[in-house]
Design a protein that fits this description.
By secondary structure, the protein is mostly helical. The chain has 8 helices and no strands. Helix 7 crosses helix 8. The protein is elongated. The termini are far apart. The relative contact order is 0.10.
Length: 148
């Protein structure tokens, strides 16, 4: 059974790019469920997890095994093939960029969304580069003055 909101996930171009963490967050939010609600529903179906594990799955620090993906499929009335495709997309994306792992850990500890953490990462990175450059220029001037 597929509701109208889930229809957007079945468009091939959208689904091929989707990662598992995005899919889990979007499906949970579509049902207006909290992490606690998801944990309750998974517990009813025999999957015992805590909130930490669920959050790690939604951030992409860890991935559920195949049995849990089947339970998510039943829980959200969403085809299990799409969960497997999204999991493969997550693995491929993770292999292509190691810096995203650091951003995901930052998201996990701060509770912020990935987009905000991604932007903050680059602001901090470029800010650090500017400060390092200014420090280098300042020390070069001091060095040159002491050599005169």
């Amino acid at each position: 059974m597929v509701n109208k909101k889930n229809k957007q996930y079945f468009e091939k171009s959208q689904l091929e790019k989707r990662t598992l963490e995005e899919l889990l967050v979007d499906l949970r939010k579509e049902k207006n469920w909290s992490h606690f609600n998801v944990i309750q529903e998974l517990t009813k179906s025999g999957v015992l997890i805590d909130e930490k594990i669920l959050k790690k799955w939604e951030v992409g620090l860890e991935y559920p095994d195949n049995d849990v993906l089947y339970k998510f499929s039943e829980l959200y009335y969403f085809p299990v093939e799409n969960f497997f495709m999204a999991k493969n997309n997550s693995y491929a994306e993770g292999m292509n960029s190691i810096h995203k792992t650091f951003i995901k850990w930052f998201c996990y500890f701060t509770g912020l969304s990935f987009k905000i953490c991604y932007a903050a990462f680059f602001v901090i990175l470029y800010g650090a580069l500017i400060i390092a450059f200014l420090f280098f220029v300042g020390n070069c001037n001091n060095f040159l003055e002491s050599r005169r």
